[in-house]
């Protein structure tokens, strides 16, 4: 009996272990974010409870009812196919879970419909679950354009740098570089990508960029797409790459502040008031009346006329130029010279002539007085001892 009881106990313990391990299977398989509805069908005006698990802790999410979408193909047309006005925001808890009621409204496009949940900030993450909106029209999904499927094979990067004009507020621009591969069975010709730029938590602004070329199945290619922001943009931006309604990659972009614009406004605030002050002071100086005898406004006296030079004597004009440049002897007596009592002799007396050799006889002598009597000897006497 003991030999039979031991295998039975072992089999019972094994069955119990398998029973306890069975519920943990689905929870361990759900590694990524997932959503679950309290009801898979609801009419317009009703509501459903959306429960989510596997999300990042403390993350802001957006819940929308979208048409023309399936969990396999995603939301075709992006958020333009969703009822954006009746969406709800929710924040996950510390375990990455949430629960929030969502009103059911008709999307702008026909069903099939889904409840689309996506992150608002941080890394991109999204999940869809089927919702049947009662009374809303249903239309088949548009056929895929080709059997090709693009997948990003490398990390995206932004190349380029700003110049002097960007420092003064010109639009910043970069080039988004990435490598894609065709994982489908058909060729892809001239694919059209959507490049979106979002500032902070705001919705991205999308621009279409077409790559010219053909990508055969199993091939890869490096693609470069231009990205440009508006003039004066600065701060933290996120560049999002989308193809056929699917988000392929996201790249953060930190744009510096255009300090040249700030410097311009500072100089403008300093120069303009100074110029206005100078103009105002000039107008005041011209308008106000001038007061006589005011300090700082001295009357300018007229300059005295220069004395006229006496005419040059004719005798000096006949002399050599070197002799005419010799200085005249200065008078030893102070004060103005005494005019002669007699009539003025028109012939001047030159200092380098001796009294006996002066021109025109004794009338032109300028040396010391001496006796001119007839009795005086006419010949000079020799000086010295006799």
UniProtKB/TrEMBL annotation:
Keyword list, A-Z: Membrane, Signal, Transmembrane, Transmembrane helix
Transmembrane feature ranges: 263-284
Ranges annotated as biased composition (Pro residues): 304-313, 336-349
Low complexity bias (residue ranges): 374-386
Compositional bias segments (type: Basic residues): 288-302
Signal peptide residues on this chain, from the entry's feature table: 1-29
Location of the region described as Disordered in the Swiss-Prot/TrEMBL record: 288-315, 327-386
Domain of life: Bacteria
Protein name: Neocarzinostatin family protein
Lineage: Bacteria, Bacillati, Actinomycetota, Actinomycetes, Kitasatosporales
């Amino acid at each position: 009996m003991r030999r039979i009881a031991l295998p039975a106990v072992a089999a019972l313990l094994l069955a119990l272990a398998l029973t306890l391990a069975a519920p943990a299977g689905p929870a361990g398989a759900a590694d990524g974010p997932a959503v679950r509805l309290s009801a898979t069908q609801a009419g317009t005006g009703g509501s459903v409870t959306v429960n989510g698990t596997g999300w990042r802790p403390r993350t802001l999410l957006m819940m929308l009812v979208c048409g023309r979408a399936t969990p396999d193909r995603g939301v075709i047309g992006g958020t333009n196919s969703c009822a954006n006005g009746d969406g709800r925001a929710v924040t996950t808890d510390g375990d990455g879970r949430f629960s929030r009621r969502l009103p059911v409204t008709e999307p702008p496009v026909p069903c099939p419909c889904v409840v689309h949940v996506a992150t608002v900030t941080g890394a991109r993450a999204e999940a869809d679950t089927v919702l049947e909106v009662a009374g809303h029209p249903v239309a088949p999904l548009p056929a895929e354009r080709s059997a090709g499927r693009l997948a990003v094979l490398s990390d995206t990067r932004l190349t380029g740098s700003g110049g002097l004009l960007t420092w003064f507020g010109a639009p910043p621009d970069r080039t988004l570089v990435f490598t894609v591969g065709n994982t489908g069975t058909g060729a892809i010709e001239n694919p059209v990508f959507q490049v979106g730029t979002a500032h902070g938590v705001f919705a991205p602004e999308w621009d279409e960029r077409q790559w010219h070329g053909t990508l055969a199945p199993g091939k890869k290619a490096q693609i470069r797409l231009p990205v440009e922001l508006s003039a004066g943009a600065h701060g933290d931006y996120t560049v999002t790459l989308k193809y056929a309604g699917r988000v392929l990659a996201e790249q953060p972009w930190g744009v510096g502040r255009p300090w040249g614009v700030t410097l311009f406004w500072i100089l403008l605030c300093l120069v303009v008031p100074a110029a206005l002050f100078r103009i105002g002071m000039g107008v005041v100086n011209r308008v106000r009346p001038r007061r006589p005898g005011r300090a700082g406004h001295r009357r300018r006296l007229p300059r005295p006329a220069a004395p006229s030079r006496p005419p040059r004597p004719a005798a000096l004009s006949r002399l050599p130029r070197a002799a005419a440049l010799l200085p005249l002897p200065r008078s030893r007596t102070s004060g103005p010279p005494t005019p002669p009592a007699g009539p003025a002799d028109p012939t001047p007396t030159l200092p380098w002539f001796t009294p006996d050799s002066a021109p025109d006889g004794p009338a032109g002598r300028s040396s010391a007085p001496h006796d001119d009597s007839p009795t005086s000897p006419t010949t000079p006497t020799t000086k010295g001892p006799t």
